[in-house]
Amino acid sequence: MDTIIHLDTVTSTNDELLRILNEKIDEVPEGTMVYADVQTKGRGQVGNHWESEKGKNLLASVAVFPDFLAADKQFLITQVGALAVVDFLSVYVGLDDLSVKWPNDVYIGDRKISGTLNEAMLMGKTIAYVVLGVGINLNQSVFSDYPLNPVSAVQLTGREYDVDKAAVLFRQCLMARYMQLVNGGEDAIRRDYMGALYRKTGFYEYADEDGVHFFARIVKVHPAGELELELESGEHRVFLFKQVSYVL
C-alpha cells in the first residue's frame, strides 16, 4: 500500500483513512497519509464544520499506532499534531508569531490558520491507533462560512503553495514529532506545547459553558488535556474542552 494516498473528493480524510484501517489494518504502514482536494463533509472538533475551497488547502489525515501509550495519555498525540503544524508552518511557509490555541488549533496572531481532529481507537488500557486529521489554510483567500477569524498562508505572504509538496513536508514534520514521542520525549513534547501555547502569559477574557465571562491566566495544561486557569480572585478552575472558550 502507498504511504501517501491522494484523492480528489472524500467525505473527510479522517473518514477515508478510518475506512481503510477498518478494512485492512494489517496492511496499513504507520505514517500512512490520505489527503484530498475537497471534503464534502469536512469536520472540526465536536461537530464543527471545516471550510475549504477545492484544491486550495492541505486536507490530510495520518495514521499512527502508539500502542506504547496508555489510553489516558492520548492527549500527547494531540500535542504532537499541533506542534507538527507549527513546525511545518515555521519551516516550509516561513511564518512566525505562531501559537497553539488550546487544545489544538494553530493561530498566527489572533487568527486561525489550522485546525485538527484526532480520532483514536482504544484497545483495553492502551491506544491501538490514532488518525490525526489536519486542515491547513494555504491558498484560500476568501472564507464564507467560518465560525471565527480565519487566515491563510497566501494572505500572509502573497505566495501560493504547492499542496502536493505541502502534504509530503507536513507528513515529515508530523512523523518527526511522533518519533520524538516514540523515543521517550514525552516531557519535551509537553514543554514545547506549553512554550507554543496561545496567550500563555497574562490575564485574558474567557467564557464558560454557561456564558459567564471572566478574566484568567493559564496555569497549566494537565496531562489528560484539561486547562487549568487562575481567576483574578486567585481561584483555580480546571476545564475540559468545550467547557471554556477564549473571548477574542
Characteristics:
SH3 type barrels; BirA Bifunctional Protein, domain 2; 5 helices; five-stranded antiparallel beta sheet; 248 residues; 2 domains; 27% helix; alpha+beta; 32% strand
Your description of this structure?
This protein has 248 residues and is an alpha+beta fold. It folds into two domains: 4-196, Bira Bifunctional Protein, Domain 2 (BirA Bifunctional Protein, domain 2), CATH 3.30.930; 204-246, SH3 type barrels (Roll). 27% of the residues lie in helices and 32% in strands. The chain is built from five helices and twelve strands. It has helices at 13-24, 75-93, 153-157, 163-182, 186-196, and strands at residues 4-10, 33-39, 58-64, 98-101, 105-108, 111-123, 126-136, 204-208, 213-221, 227-231, 236-239, 244-246. It has a seven-stranded mixed β-sheet, with helices on both faces. Helix 2 (75-93) crosses helix 5 (186-196). The longest helix is centred in the C-terminal third of the chain and has 20 residues, at 163-182. 38% of the residues are buried.
In short, what is this structure?
With 248 residues, the protein is an alpha+beta fold. The protein contains five helices and twelve strands. A seven-stranded mixed beta sheet has the order 1-2-3-7-6-5-4, with helices on both faces.
